[in-house]
Design brief:
The protein is 49% helix and 16% strand. By secondary structure, it is of the alpha+beta class. It starts with a helix and ends with a helix. 22% of the residues are buried.
Length: 109
Amino acid sequence: TDVNEALRKDIEAKLASDRMVVFLTGTPDFPRCGFTARIVDLFRQFGVNYTSYDILESDEFCEGLKEYSDWPTYPQVYVDKELVGGYDNIKQMAMDGSLVKMLKEKNLV
């Protein structure tokens, strides 16, 4: 990726902060877009614990994470430092049962 070294280290430190990390627009209590509100609600329904970061706090981080992940939108959901996807992916996984399966396999619920 074209992400500078300091930013890459910051991203990797955040990914290492918890087994499930979600980069949101806003916070779980104060979402700044509909997709963030819906993903937070979905995770609450499933009783999922995660660490979140508000990507709106830094334009550099927001743009750098898009390059790092090669994923153009937010929220971005990571499990064990691997990108699972955004809201559409998580919604589909919730509907087809694969989200609960993955969370149980990884002992996250």
